[in-house]
């Protein structure tokens, strides 16, 4: 397995783990456990971002083009309408 594949696998696994933490936090009633899970998720987010930066520098990962302002406003408006 090449380094690029390993980095992308770790990025994917870390993102999946962050989703699991988020779900667990949303279902957690114990405040101490909730805070611990939040700290763990925050640590994973920082790790993922640092690894993403390395992957991008090595051309292992190409980020999507930034959305334009009009597209962002459209999505924001749709989300706000869905919440009403």
Task: Kindly describe this structure.
- This protein is mainly α.
- Helix content is 80%, strand content 0%.
- It is flat, with a radius of gyration of 17 Å.
- The mean pLDDT is 92.
What is the SS-derived class? Answer: mainly alpha
Rough outline: flat
The termini sit apart by 49 Å
> Average pLDDT across residues?
92
Number of strands: 0
Radius of gyration: 17 Å
List the domain count as a whole number. Answer: 1
How do the SSEs run, as a string of H and E? HHH
| Percent in helix | over 70%
Keywords: Capsid protein, Virion
Protein name: Spore coat protein
Pfam families: Coat_F
InterPro entries: Ferritin-like (IPR012347), Spore_coat_CotF-like (IPR012851)
Summarize the structure.
The protein is mainly α.
Task: Provide tags for this entry.
single chain, 84 residues, mainly alpha, 3 helices, flat
How does the SSE layout of this entry go?
Layout: H1 3-27, H2 31-57, H3 69-83
Helix pairs in contact: 1-2
């Amino acid at each position: 397995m090449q380094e690029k594949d390993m980095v992308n696998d770790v990025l994917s696994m870390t993102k999946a783990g962050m989703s699991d933490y988020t779900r667990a936090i949303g279902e957690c009633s114990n405040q101490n456990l909730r805070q611990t899970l939040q700290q763990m998720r925050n640590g994973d987010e920082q790790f993922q971002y640092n690894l993403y930066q390395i992957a991008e520098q090595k051309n292992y990962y190409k980020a999507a083009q930034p959305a334009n302002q009009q597209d962002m406003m459209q999505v924001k408006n749709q989300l706000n309408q869905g919440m009403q």
